[in-house]
Amino acid sequence: MKKHIINGVLVFALMATAGCSSSNNAASNGSANQPPATTEPALKTGYGFDQWQQGPLGDVFYEFDSSDLSPEAQQQLKDNASWLESNPQKGTTIEGHCDSRGTSEYNIALGERRSASAKEYLVRLGIASSRLETVSYGEERPFATGENDEAWAKNRRAHFVVK
Amino acid sequence: MRLSKNVVHLLLILFVSLATIPLRVSAAETGEYIAIRKEGSGKIAIVLRQPDAKGNRESGWAQNLDTVIHEGLAFTGLFNILPAPLNIIDTTNPKNPVLNFGALNSVGSEIYAGGKVTKQSGEVVLDMEVYETLSSKQILKKTYTGREEQIRSIGQAFCADLVQLLTGKKSVFGTKIAFVSTRTGTKEIYECDFDGQNIVQLTSSRSISLTPVFSPDGHYLAWTDFTSGRPNLYIRDLTTNKTVPASKNGVSIDPGWRNNNEVATTLSFEGDQEIYLIRPDGSIAQRVTRNRGIDVSPTFSPDGGKMAFVSSRNGLPQIFVQDMGSGAVRRLTFSGRYNTQPSWSPVGDKIAYTTWENGSEINIFVINADGSGLVKLTSRCRENESPSWSPDGDMIVFTSNRDGKKKLYVMNASGENQRPLVKMDGEQMQPSWSLFRK
């Protein structure tokens, strides 16, 4: 119940933001010879951006055996939605990833649910599902090596590849 | 022990008449024999004598055949192979040397196997004879013929006959194991013989290829790979080498054959992940599960009437059993928080699976299909995964990283005699034992 209200508020907030950034974008697009946003090196740091995420869309992270979106994950998805609103010619492939624990077959299923939960949220924020592809790599393509909490946390993500 | 030996003795006398028309023993009698064997001590005490041969070439064949037979019978874990007594041949009458059953019995032998190798029309001809030593009765006499390069197959054909005669069950000889290896740098599908020999690479996707499984008759191989950019089911006709994808949106995960014409796999094209039955042409025959959450890794009872699978419907993954007729589902596993990778024994009502235990250990368990009789087969050796039964239900092949990299191992169904199976570069995982034999 409480969650629904929060989500509802977030959607409203986003619609407002999206509207803003859309007009901002129109302005910036108006200035000549801007390189495409996708080739800009990521200057951002913090949640969603690490050495593995160089594009404009930040990754989102998950708890163990979960595809639920934390408040931070939801915020990152709102930012990603804003960028997608501003770049309507772009789409993204959302890769679902898991840490190396557990078993491989189950993790492909879990990774898909992660990519699907991210996609579903973006669609609720107004991004056309035709621009959002999902794929699950399960535990097959880890980002961080190592068998520790830090590496596991980094590997439980939805990774955004702009195309 | 002594009592059971006598009963075995009596039963073997029954066999003799059958064995003179070698092979194909009727199920009723062999069933009785198995029951009595299990009641007695575990292993069958056997003396193997290198086949007689005249001539250099024949002697070389005999030596190689002896090695193949020795290794083959040792691999099954069913035998206690005894050294042959020195006076095994009684030469009291030099013109007619005979088997010395007294000597065989005195070393504790139950079964004796020996024979001779000759060359006929350039081919290897192996004449084998098997005796039950207490009764001095012949229980098998058969001739095996083939080319020199087929010596391994010739020796294993004899092993197959002997094991089937003594246990009443189809043996592992001639069966294949499909598996995944990173040898080339990416995960590709391979197959090898039951004993880890004759490795053949089956895919060159340079992508990620996972979870191979042969159809029961060996006509098809199904697996999941990422060639299209996402995990998708592929089915290869092994006769024509033609491969078809089961193309649907979303992912496909971890196929398991129900019979020769239906392979179950998880598809997500309808939104939620559900298990479907797919025909070998890639088309969908039927949806099987209807439940929100992860449903993966289908494996079927021998008659195809029940399906065990992994579901997250109660939270963390557990194994459930669904009746294919009524659709009724019950939870099978209640011990362990994270249970996956079920594998239904091809001979009975046992299901092997893995539990992710505290820390980073994953271990293999076997449980009866009714949920009773839980047994732990591996412990305190890191991650042991992906159990798959031999067709006779006597052995399990699995993955373990107990020595560092993930490698294939085999063990007896009781968990005894765990040892590495395949020697090859890279990691090996997700083995699946064929039901057919070539």
Description:
- The complex is a heterodimer of chains A (163) and B (438).
- Chain A has a four-stranded mixed sheet with strand order 1-4-2-3.
- In chain A, helix 1 (2-30) packs parallel to helix 2 (71-86).
- Chain A starts with a helix and ends with a strand.
- Chain A is built from four helices and four strands, in the order H-E-H-E-H-E-H-E.
- Chain A is globular.
- Chain A is of the alpha+beta class and 163 residues long.
- Mean pLDDT of chain A is 81; it is low at 1-39.
- Chain A has one domain: 2-Layer Sandwich (60s Ribosomal Protein L30, Chain: A).
- Chain A has helices at 2-30, 71-86, 104-124, 149-155, and strands at 60-61, 92-97, 132-138, 157-162.
- In chain A, helix 3 (104-124) links the parallel strand 2 and strand 3 (132-138).
- Chain B is of the alpha+beta class.
- Chain B folds into two domains: 2-167, Rossmann fold (3-Layer(aba) Sandwich); 176-433, TolB, C-terminal domain (Neuraminidase), CATH 2.120.10.30.
- Chain B is 17% helix and 39% strand.
- Chain B has five helices and 32 strands.
- In chain B, strands 1, 2, 3, 6, 7 and 8 form a six-stranded mixed sheet that branches.
- In chain B, helix 1 (2-20) packs antiparallel against helix 2.
- The longest helix of chain B has 21 residues, at 56-76.
- Classes of the chains: A alpha+beta (163), B alpha+beta (438).
- At the A-B interface, helix 3 and strand 3 of A face loops of B.
The CATH C-level name of chain A is Alpha Beta
CATH class (first level) name of the largest domain in chain B? Mainly Beta
Count of helical regions of chain A: 4
The CATH topology of the largest domain in chain B corresponds to Neuraminidase
- Main sheet characteristics of chain A: 4 strands, mixed
Low-confidence stretches of chain B: 10-36
What proportion of the residues of chain A form beta strands (DSSP E)? 5-15%
Q: Which CATH architecture of chain A?
A: 2-Layer Sandwich
Bin the helical content of chain A: 40-55%
The main sheet of chain B comes to: 6 strands, mixed
What Rg of chain A, in angstroms, do the CA atoms define?
Answer: 16 Å
Mean pLDDT of chain A: 81
Report the end-to-end length of chain A measured between terminal Cα atoms.
Answer: 37 Å
The CATH H-level homologous superfamily of chain A: OmpA-like domain
The number of distinct structural domains of chain B comes to 2
Per CATH, the architecture of the largest domain in chain B is 6 Propeller
